[in-house]
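Technical annex, item 7. During the second reporting period the consortium partners agreed on a shared format for inverse folding records so that results from different sites could be compared directly. Each record opens with the tokenized structure and is followed by the designed sequence. A conforming record, contributed by the partner at site C, is shown below for reference.
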């Protein structure tokens, strides 16, 4: 088996602490759900947000053939704003049929006043032992970053909701 990874960063026009709270703190997903309305139907959390916490995200069928993403928090360091989680169940979609395992690491770093950089790394193994084609790696990583950009758009448009 070949362990592979893909990393990508994106600038976000909101403070690191606020993005962490809204997208990665692990318990209150209300802003994430509002920001991704029509994309994500629900997020259920089992646990306190720390290691072992399980999140179950149901994807809107109009968005993807992936239906359910179930993840388990491996580590969450709120002070450093870094989280690692593993996908334990992926229902539906091309990636579910191709990937043997998937671990994501998310970090949020301040980048000046009112801005931050989000770095996503996806470590994965394919069932066939090969690396994903570049276009599939791009879809995989860009899917995560697309959610963050939706959160950014929502928070900018509704600043009073996240004060």
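Designed sequence (site C submission):
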């Amino acid at each position: 088996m070949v362990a592979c990874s893909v990393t990508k960063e994106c600038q976000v026009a909101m403070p690191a602490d606020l993005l962490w709270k809204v997208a990665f703190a692990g318990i209150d997903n209300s802003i994430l759900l509002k920001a991704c309305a029509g994309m994500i139907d629900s997020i259920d959390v089992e646990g306190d947000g720390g290691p072992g916490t399980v999140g179950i995200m149901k994807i809107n069928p109009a968005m993807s053939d992936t239906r359910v993403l179930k993840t388990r928090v491996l580590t969450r360091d709120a002070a450093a704003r870094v989280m690692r989680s593993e996908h334990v169940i992926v229902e539906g979609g091309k990636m579910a049929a191709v990937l043997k395992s998937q671990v994501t690491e998310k970090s949020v770093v301040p980048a000046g006043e009112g801005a931050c950089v989000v770095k996503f790394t996806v470590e994965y193994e394919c069932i066939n032992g090969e690396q994903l084609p570049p276009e599939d790696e791009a879809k995989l990583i860009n899917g995560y970053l697309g959610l963050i950009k939706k959160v950014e758009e929502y928070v900018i448009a509704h600043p009073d909701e996240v004060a």
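The chain has a mean pLDDT of 90. The chain has four helices and seven strands. All partners now use this format for quarterly exchanges.
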